[in-house]
Design goal:
Keywords: Carbohydrate metabolism, Glycosidase, Hydrolase, Polysaccharide degradation, Signal, Xylan degradation. The protein is built from eleven helices and nine strands. Helix 9 links the parallel strand 7 and strand 8. The structure holds ligand G3I.
């Protein structure tokens, strides 16, 4: 196959990108999006600050724009993200305790209900684990409502949209380390207790290389009985092309690694300003990393 999406589809996988609503009028951007990708994630437009700017008042204008562009062009949609300690609306930042918990769960229910039946996978909870060696939860206003906030969010999401796959998503979880092991233990506990969880997102914001145990880490999550998805891939540095190839081969080698999403289309679309961590140049040309990814997808 000659495009990323078609090549991934040969093995039943998807290959997606983050999309920004304000770029849907840029013809170079839209041409690459429509040609190359079969999955879309809203880069910012489905987050809490965007979708519930005032408590109980929901705004789906930009999120719907991305969703409809994707669905009208035959692409799946990853929902990102129902609850996160960042990009909360100001009103939620000022809440705590049972009031915040109630607002958070209501947010999950309302947004997942709005998009019911249209989202392939939801990042229900994003980045709730601490960096460093503790393997524990990150301190946040949500965490301070009680350790069970994550499972409460997953249960609410399942009730609102029973057919969406429900994911936990995080960064610095690319290899086997204290943080990824903390998440691994949570997922194992959720599976043992029947808390609904279907997938783990490994963001994969990388520099130069994937860790040598990247594939083993994907595999250990898959062995818990969840899908793994590479959700926000971007790679800086001089070994970029080889590293993109290695990440793609690792996913292809894990049966339950069901898809890869890159975090933007052209280098100029990236949040990593000046690092050029994506598959297309600012003018929309394919980079060496693109060819490595395509070859790895086609190798099956
Ligand atoms: O929308 C406002 C605009 O009105 C204003 O004029 C402009 C001026 O700064 O800011 C705009 O908001 C920015 C928004 O992106 C949309 O462009 C925010 O300042 C900026 O902070 C925000 O950054 C996003 C970041 O998440 C926020 O934490 C990035 O685009 C987005 O790529 C990034 O994505 C995250 C994932 O969601 C989770 N994992 C990590 C990843 C990278 O940080």
């Amino acid at each position: 196959a000659t495009t990323l999406g078609a090549a991934a589809a040969q093995s039943g996988r998807n290959f997606g990108t983050a999309v920004a609503a304000q770029k849907l009028g840029d013809s170079t951007y839209v041409n690459i999006l429509n040609t190359e990708f079969n999955s879309v994630t809203a880069e910012n437009e489905m987050k809490w600050d965007a979708t519930e700017p005032n408590r109980g008042q929901f705004n789906y204008t930009s999120g719907d724009r991305i969703l409809n562009h994707a669905l009208n062009n035959g692409k799946q949609v990853r929902g990102h993200a129902l609850l996160w300690h960042q990009q909360q609306p100001r009103w939620a930042q000022g809440l705590s305790g049972s009031d915040l918990r109630q607002a958070a769960i209501n947010h999950v229910t309302q947004v997942a209900t709005h998009y019911r039946g249209k989202i392939h996978s939801w990042d229900v909870v994003n980045e709730a684990f601490a960096d460093g060696g503790s393997g524990g939860r990150r301190d946040s206003n949500l965490q301070r409502t009680g350790n069970d906030w994550i499972e409460a969010a997953f249960r609410a999401a399942r009730a609102a949209d029973p057919n969406a796959k429900l994911c936990y998503n995080d960064y610095n979880t690319d290899g086997i380390n204290a943080k990824s092991t903390g998440i691994y233990n949570m997922v194992r506990d959720f599976k043992a207790r029947g808390v609904p969880i279907d997938c783990v997102g490994i963001q994969s914001h990388l520099s130069n290389n994937a860790p040598s145990d990247y594939q083993a880490n994907l595999q250990r999550f898959a062995d818990l009985g969840v899908d793994v998805q590479i959700t926000e891939l971007d790679i800086s540095g001089s070994n970029q092309a080889n590293a993109f190839g290695a990440v793609t081969r690792a996913c292809m080698a894990v049966a339950r690694c069901t898809g890869i999403t890159v975090w933007g289309i052209r280098d100029t679309d990236s949040w990593r300003t000046g690092e050029n961590p994506l598959l297309f140049t600012g003018s929309g040309a394919k980079k060496p990393a693109y060819n490595q990814v395509l070859d790895a997808l086609n190798a099956g």
